[in-house]
Amino acid sequence: MKKPLMILTSLFFFLVSCGDNDLAEDYVSVSNKILAIRIQEPEVKPGDTVSMKLLVSGKEMDQNSDIPVTWTIGSEDADYYYQEEIPYHQEFQIEIPSDTPVGETFVDVPVLATIIIDNKILSSLKRFRVTNTPVGMNPQISGIQADWKSGNDFHTKTIEAGETITIDHTVGNIAFTVNTIELPQGANDQLVYKWYVTTSKNSDGMLEVNDDIEKIEEILGSGSHAAEFRQSVLISLYGENGEGSFQKGTYNIYIVIRDNASESNDKSEDRLGTDFCYFTLDVID
Question: What was the pLDDT predicted at 282?
Fold first, then answer.
């Protein structure tokens, strides 16, 4: 049942987030997990249309899936309620009433996204802000740059969302770097990058994040860094620091960018801007 959207004047603390606040500390995403909700934009004016998209990880997760996602705005008990169910691959959109009473300040609106995968309920809570003077904006990913060395040859490729990149056993390490669109000055004080890699879909392979500074600089240049919370990540096809066996397989890779966030350990960070991207790495003989 749908009711007209009404803006909440308080947070609904009984809604529990199982998403951004529970992100794994390591890079490997084994089972299905909500990594992010992107709300475009995190701050809007009355009368604006707001678009929302969910990102669920997992080696078997199809980003074109029709699995239904239930989007809930507000609380039915408080008579402030809007709910709609749409396929996972689609964006959810709502129009903010033009007569929304925000006064001279703002109103924060809670959004709950829920999806059932393999009989497991996954949910995540996020907020957006309605104000007459929006400032916050989402970071925007324009593409992922892949750099690798095969023999004595260096290769570079720009990857778009949903694309597959294929490399073989002649590659020891491959670097991925997020390219972003520059936003107006003051829109972002800092960006936090979170990388996630699944185990292989079709083998026992598991990629490693390589923190060997010499390997990083060999591909990305002197002084480069590649690790969690940084713009680049270096993946080893031969285990930790290139000392293991060849990890043939097909892997899903996800990148989530948070704006002005650290770990999203408190509700004050749930409103901050987010963007994400995903692609597939096919490692062959």
Answer: 98
